[in-house]
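User: tokens in, sequence out, please.
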């Protein structure tokens, strides 16, 4: 069941990402929220695959930190380092993505098209990285 559940969560992550692309001009606030949901679900799918559990947190950087720690524990240090380097390299975009979670629902945050495009780019890079890590770890 967990393999099926992983695939369902991954599919939803891609659906949120695709919806964000569709909404970028019409509803940038909802687009940014969908980017966050996409990233959160994609990371949680990988965590579920590796740990059998889904953490009940929403912070993208914290979820990635948990993933890096789990990879380290499994002796996949190179993959853990890739995750850590991604967090460092994409820090500002990840902060924007995390802010979108709250601001898009409750605030009047100002999100420009260029910010959303950067968040989308970061999300796509994250998805690619997670695919590579899963492929390397699972063979």
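Assistant: Sequence out:
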């Amino acid at each position: 069941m967990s393999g099926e559940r992983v695939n369902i969560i991954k599919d939803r992550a891609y659906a949120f990402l695709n919806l964000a692309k569709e909404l970028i001009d019409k509803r940038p606030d909802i687009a940014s929220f969908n980017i966050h949901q996409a990233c959160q679900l994609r990371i949680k799918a990988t965590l579920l695959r590796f740990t059998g559990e889904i953490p009940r947190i929403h912070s993208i950087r914290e979820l990635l930190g948990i993933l890096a720690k789990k990879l380290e524990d499994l002796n996949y240090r190179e993959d853990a380092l890739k995750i850590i380097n991604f967090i460092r390299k994409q820090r500002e975009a990840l902060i924007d993505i995390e802010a979108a979670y709250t601001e898009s629902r409750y605030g009047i945050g100002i999100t420009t098209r260029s910010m959303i495009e950067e968040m989308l780019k970061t999300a796509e890079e994250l998805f690619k990285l997670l695919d590579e890590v899963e492929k390397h770890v699972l063979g």
